[in-house]
Amino acid sequence: MATTGSTVKDSDALEAIHARLAKRGLLPGEHLADGGYVTVNHLHAAAEQQVTLIGPIGNNSSWQHRANAGFSRAEFTIDFEHREATCPQGETSGDWLEMQTPGRVPSIVVKFDRRLCDPYPVRTSCTRSREGHSISFPPRHLYELQERNREQQTDSHWLRTYGSRSGVEGTVAEFVGSHRVRHCRYHGLAKTHVQHVLTAVAVNIEQLHTHETPAHHAREPTALQKYIIGRELPIPHWWGDD
Questions:
Q1: pLDDT digit string (tens) for 32-47?
Q2: What pTM, to 2 d.p., does this model score?
Q3: Contact yes or no for 12/18 (Cβ under 8 A)
Q4: Residue 242: band (very low, low, confident or very high) from pLDDT cuts 50, 70, 90
């Protein structure tokens, strides 16, 4: 269980979770995550911990992709060996800049001078800038990992692997619906964390019990059902046999 302040985004807790798991010797080789976690920053941080982050990569957000017209970064050929990129019209630029911003993943920017772009009538499909065009992308190991994740999303093996994560959503629903975990009985992060841990233990015990006694058990009647039974009213057809 990872307990954070209410203003902390879920995805911001991922790196600290990996750090705690590594300290306890429980770091996984692969981590199945929601699409909101599978960003370049998280791929980079997970790779440094020797963890492969698996999850759906978001769609291309460029205006060309949204308009289904023009040339987005995906149409450029990137040559990491020779540190250059080639545009869809065959023009190659070696204006390769490696950018490093504190606290952020390194990025690479390749600039195409306007003299390369101006002769082509499709220039406006590539860029709206009058100063030429530039594309940015992460370092090679992250770029290839990101592209591999994107390509594998429709692969049956990838889908089976990622399908293992579906049980997480049911567990989250159980926490929220059955145990009201979003309502805290205590003040302070430390006490709240204890409540979360104890609730997680209870959920684990419930799930183990369910696996050990797979026979069908009738559900407890709902408040509406108890009302109908108590007043001997006709049982609706949608009630079912359970």
A1: 888 888 888 888 888 8
A2: 0.62
A3: no
A4: very low
Q: Is 98's pLDDT higher than 80?
A: yes
Q: Which two tokens stand for residue 82?
A: 């020779």
Specify the amino acid at residue 21.
L
- In three-state form (DSSP H/G/I as H, E/B as E, the rest C), the secondary structure along the chain is CCCCCCCCCHHHHHHHHHHHHHHCCCCCCEEECCHHHCCHHHHHHHHHCCCEEECCCCCCCCHHHHHCCCCCHHHCEEECCCCEEECCCCCEECCEEEECCCCCCCEEEEEECHHHHCCCCCHHHHCCCCCCEEEEECCHHHHHHHHHHHHHCCCHHHHHHHHCCHHHHHHHHHHHHHHCCCCCCCCCHHHHHHHHHHHHHHHHHHHHHHHHCCCCCCCCCCHHHHHHHHCCCCCCHHHCCC
